[in-house]
Amino acid sequence: MVKILAAGLWVCLVTLGAVYFSVHMATAPAEVSEEDAKKAKLELVRGESITIPMIADGSVRGYFLGRISFMMDKEKIKGVELPLTELMTDELFTLLIGNKMVDISNMASFDVAAFREKIKTDINAHLGEGFVEEVLVEQLDYMSKDDVRATSEGTAKPPAKPVKVIEGDKVEEPAKSGH
After folding, report:
1. What's the CA gap between 61 and 100, in Å, rounded?
2. Residue 150 and residue 78: Cα distance in Å, rounded?
3. pTM of this prediction?
4. What is the spatial distance between Cα 73 and Cα 44, in angstroms, rounded to a whole number?
5. Which residues of the chain have pLDDT under 70?
6. CA 63 to CA 67: how far, in whole Å?
7. Which residues contact residue 127 at a Cβ distance below 8 angstroms, ignoring those fewer than 6 apart?
8. Percentage helix, strand, coil, to 5, in the chain?
């Protein structure tokens, strides 16, 4: 009888110890890496698709097709209506047409990192420092005026393919929480 009571007491103590240890480990604060903490403070702000005409010698020569999104500081953009489409259109006009960062005849010379950094710097200059943490170029293509015309008239066989300026980043929508 004493052996049965001792065995039962032993099983209870081991079970209580295991439950305490598992609850303690489950509620212990997890170590969060610096990179994960930084990402948790950011929010994806999707950009719209925009078309920018390339003008040379007083006429349209082609079109840049672009879509650029941003990783922005959640706290800074809370409750702020951002004119991102207008700012992005203005910025791309300046970089692609005004500064001519893209040379259609020499695509290999295009510096994607400098392009992203310039967009980030200029948008932050408009909105305030620290709004934009990262620029995500989803699409940046070029189509000549002749390709656009042939495609719209249905004479291009097969339809004209745009020139890839940047092989864009795949931007996923963040998972929606059930809150």
Report:
1. 14
2. 45
3. 0.62
4. 9
5. 30-33, 36-37, 103-106, 154-163, 165-179
6. 13
7. 82, 87
8. 45, 25, 30
